[in-house]
Amino acid sequence: MSSMEAPAGGGGTGQGAASVLRVVMQLPLPIRGGALGAGSAGIAGGVIGLVVGLLTYAPTAPFAVLELGFPASVVGGIVGVATGAVVLGLQRTRSSRLATRTRATERPPAAASAVPAPGRGRSEPPGSPLRRPRPRR
């Protein structure tokens, strides 16, 4: 196989990107947020560093890429981990609230409640403490 031919699996950049995406999506949410935050902020900082380096003094542009890209990557990773942790916490509290609400609102089987609940089905007798008086007009 020559250097110009593609591998037998058809692998191009599309397969590599898909496999990286598959691996990242299997990570826990805070780690995934940190990886995505570090990557995106690092790329943005690197591009800004390249532009600034080329505009100021072109021979030192690679160092400007590192000077801006690395700190941006660290900050992006920290913000991504914090954001992922907050989202994970909100998902867990929401799911626990829904589970609690579902358990609390489940009705008992019809055979278990022989007496209808007050105010449902038939009205209470006139002197009953459960009956509310009608407002006067």
Chain-wise SSE layout:
Elements: H1 13-25, H2 29-56, H3 61-105
Number of helices: 3
Reported for the largest beta sheet, the result is: none
Q: Low-confidence parts lasting 5 or more residues at pLDDT below 50? A: none
Inertia-based shape: elongated
Instruction: Give the termini distance in whole angstroms.
Output: 95 Å
| Binned strand content | under 5%
The helix content is 55-70%
Broad structural category: mainly alpha
Overall pLDDT, averaged? 80
User: What is the ordering of alpha helices and beta strands?
Assistant: HHH
Radius of gyration: 31 Å
Count of DSSP strands: 0
**Based on the structure, what is the oligomeric state of the protein chains?**
single chain
